[in-house]
DNA sequence: ACAAAAGTGTTGTTTCTACACCCATGC
DNA sequence: GCATGGGTGTAGAAACAACACTTTTGT
């Protein structure tokens, strides 16, 4: 048999929601769409799935082509499939999300396509249903980060406890008690303190920490509790796949 | 513009992992594939995405066509996309999973296609990558059920605490202390005791309970803890989307 | 009367939250 | 010397796990 008869074939796009954190705000990486329709409007990093690649491979390829980044934390999130989501023709939109160290990106920036960071709180209008993809990513991120140490993916190799705390406070838009927070994080053993201090933000300076890779991977499956239970946002439902894959370039 | 040029269109299939529980064992609903290749081999409930329907709609349609069931708990799980996963041609496999009350199904059984229940522990060989889909579903179910009261979807309207406990014990293959278990479950307020008892399994009889819909939906987002923390299987990673949608037929 | 399953309470341990002061430094 | 942000400890409350006996009733 050569093919299935009487069935409709359709395009499959991969759209990557690329999230960064600059120490203060969550940022989203957007690009100006290079072709019609909606040419020059802001869009997620996207492209069409090619015949010889899997979705994971396509997501990596697209991210690399548009940003120059590899070896980034990435997950398949959800398929958006409304028949008219793309006005041109039927396109199934597979959403992936990526968490990246924004400074790492600054180095490797491939600005041929001039992607741009926008503050998550003030995004421009996005094409098609891309805003839905972003919304779902944030929901997923809030859910997952409440249970697993995923946010470390957004930080540079060396980071401080105050930085980490701001990261969590920003995601849930809540204040967190620093004593309880540091006790919880340190008790897991996933980070270790360095001699060195970051003096850029205070006179006293804050100790740098680094991730313990082994402990990090071990803890990843465990259900943690960095966020006070009552603060886990009710909008966050359940659901999840398990696929925390560190895609390898 | 009429269509995107120079891009490859492909088939999209929807495959439903339909899970039931008969009071003792987890069961999987399989069907004998109706067309070549692999005709008459055991397969998940599947079909091709049609031009006018979304994936959610396709999943509902397929489940209904093959089993006669509507209004069933269903989630989009993951897209399987290896280029050669179907030997005939490129097909993107969208996996959904459904949890159903097996007795409800017995009533509404549409046996035109003769689907068959198999014990999860002794499945026949499945076509293509369907076993991977089942494996991922179980992983997801174990993860999610440890945090959210999702397993109630597998029980009939009226059920007993011993039944519920067997359901949890079976999923994780662990024994659970019935005193702690009942205290935890009851303290959430998601079920209420009826006068009536189930005397089919003991002389003394076990009280029937029913779900409190309001409380159930309210609790659904909360992170629960029916399973002792150390028993949450380490194989279960993180990841999830949030999409606990009760698809409406 | 006894076997089989259902139901229920207590205790010690751990984990959580709430909360306030001293420290180090650059200016 | 003082303002700024960084670091640390304790105590009361809540949640958890471990554990064993009594109840019901069909035979």
Automatic annotation (TrEMBL), chains A, B:
Residues 11-142 form the Nudix hydrolase domain. InterPro entries: NUDIX_hydrolase-like_dom_sf, NUDIX_hydrolase_dom, WH-like_DNA-bd_sf, WH_DNA-bd_sf, WHD_NrtR. It comes from the Bacteria. This is Putative Nudix-like regulator. It comes from Lunatimonas lonarensis.
């Amino acid at each position: 048999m050569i093919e299935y008869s009487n069935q409709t074939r359709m395009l499959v796009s991969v759209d990557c929601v690329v999230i960064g954190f600059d120490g203060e705000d969550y940022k989203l990486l957007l690009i100006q769409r290079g072709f019609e329709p909606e040419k020059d409007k802001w869009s997620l990093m996207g492209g069409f799935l090619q015949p010889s690649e899997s979705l994971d491979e396509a997501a990596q390829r697209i991210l690399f082509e548009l940003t120059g980044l590899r070896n980034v934390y990435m997950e398949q999130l959800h398929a958006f499939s409304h028949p008219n989501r793309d006005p041109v023709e039927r396109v199934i939109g597979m959403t992936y999300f990526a968490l990246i160290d924004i400074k790492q990106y600054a180095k490797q920036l491939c600005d041929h396509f001039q992607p741009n960071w926008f503050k998550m709180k003030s995004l421009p209008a996005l094409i098609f249903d891309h805003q839905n993809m972003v919304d779902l990513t944030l929901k997923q991120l809030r859910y997952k980060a409440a249970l697993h140490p995923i946010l470390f993916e957004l930080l540079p190799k060396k980071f401080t406890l105050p930085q980490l705390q701001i990261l969590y406070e920003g995601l849930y838009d809540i204040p967190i008690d620093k004593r309880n927070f540091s006790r919880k994080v340190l008790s897991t053993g996933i980070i270790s303190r360095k001699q060195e201090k970051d003096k850029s933000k205070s006179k006293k300076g804050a100790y740098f920490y680094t991730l313990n890779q082994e402990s990090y991977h071990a803890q990843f499956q465990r259900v943690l509790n960095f966020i006070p239970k009552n603060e886990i946002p009710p909008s966050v439902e359940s659901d999840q796949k398990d696929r925390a894959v560190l895609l390898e370039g």
